[in-house]
Every structure is written in C-alpha cells, then in structure tokens.
Design brief:
Serine Threonine Protein Phosphatase 5, Tetratricopeptide repeat, 182 residues, mainly alpha
Length: 182
Amino acid sequence: MTEEDILTQAAQCITQGNFMGAMEIFESYIAANSNDPSGYHGWAEAAMFEIQENGNMDDKGNDRINEGKIQSYLRKAAGLDSDNAEYLASYANALIEFDRVPMAIREFQKLRALGEKSDDVDVSFHLYEAARMLIDSINLKTNFDRSEQFARQYTPIAIEFAILGLGFTSIEEAMEYIATEE
C-alpha cells in the first residue's frame, strides 16, 4: 500500500467516525514516515474529533487521550512545515482548546506573519476563527466580565484578529472605513 493509500484509508476512517481507527493508522504511518508532518497532523486532528465526539474522560475520570501528545504532534507538524497555514492554525486552535491562551496567541502571531510574508497564503479565515475562539475562552474564564484582567489583556488581541480576519490589513485601515462619513 502506498503512503497516499494509507493516508486515504485514515481519512476514510475519520469520515466514518472511526477516529480511534484513524489514530492507529496515523501512528503506523508516523513510525514509517517520521519526517512527514501529515501523519502527526492527521493523528492529532483525529484525536481532537474523538474528544469532541466522545469526550475525553474514562469511567475513572482519567483522560482517554493525552492532550499533551495532541499538542506535541500538532507542534511537530507545524515545525516540520512552518509555511503550512493549516498546521499552524490547528496547533494554535488546540492550544486555545486546552486553555493555553498565551501560547496560542504566539502561534497565531506566527500565522499572521506567514500571511504577511506571502500573498499566496490567505490566513484571514484562521485569524477570524481565532478571534471567535479567543472571545469564547475569555467569556468562559471571566463569566462574561470584560472588566477582569484576563479579558482586558486578551480582548484587544481578539478584536485585532477579527479585523484582520475580515480582510483588513490593519486596525488603522478598518478605522478609516468606520470614520468615513456617507
């Protein structure tokens, strides 16, 4: 079976909801192709789907899937292909999911820089999604109290990501549109 066939088989498992099966296939793929980021990314994505679909606690209250391993695999994929916006965004999104907001913001800043570096890479969707996830995290952590330090610290960053995600090149450019009289 070719490498492409193996990845296709894993993707089919994901579409069928067999996330654990996909993770097993990706583990085998990683063992044979340790320098291919798609294996690490695929495993971590399948693990995230498994957690979203079935939770991550077993009957004894322990994690079924190690969140540190998910982070590690996403970091590895992003490191192996640092110009891949999808890998960078997946890593940053997982960091928000696992309540590692400062780390996530650093990764989203890398993503932003990637978008600025290349006209061929559109990161606006990822930044817009980052803004939404950051606001959700802020609201959850502060019980919707924007006066709390955590909210005051990260809300401006979320707003900046939202503006960039809408396709503006800067906050200043967006403000020009807001200030324009009709």
